Amino acid sequence: MCNSSSEGKEWTKNYVHKYLRNVPNPKFLDIGTGQGTYFRMLNSGYPNAHWTGVEAYKPYIEKYRLMEQYHTMHNADATELYGKNINVSQLHYDVVFCGDVLEHMTKEKAVALVEKLTSCCGILIISIPIIKWPQHDDTNPFQIHVKDDWTHEEVLDSFHGVIDHSKGDSVGVYIVAGDRYIPKD
Number of folded domains in the chain? Predict the structure, then answer.
């Protein structure tokens, strides 16, 4: 199961369009691509964009034809992005997505990942369940919700640099300013 809630997606799309309105060749990093939701949602608006995807569950890469969508595709766990084989901190992205990813790890790992990712981007977009949301999957171990009880307040307290958010009934979307954040009018 790699479906995500549609809650917050339209707000995210509008926010990205506003943030990138004067960026002709944006670079996107999509952590936990799943079906490629963010790519499909935004790619047509950015024909000269470069998309890098990271997906831990190898069968999704083939099933959803992710190699045909993303310019660069890594089969890796999000917590391995700073290892020998993949070091995204040496690159720059305008927008990084952590959509339905952080609940699949401990809070400590989630906070550490966000801190690392903000060093290489303009903005980091976190989409995360903000209600108790247990999830288990017998076929995909990466789908298990390790921390299944995030709240809106806990997200705001845990991730530094949140500059905007959209709080839904079950999912919150949070914009975190990265080290390369450029404020927009």
Answer: 1
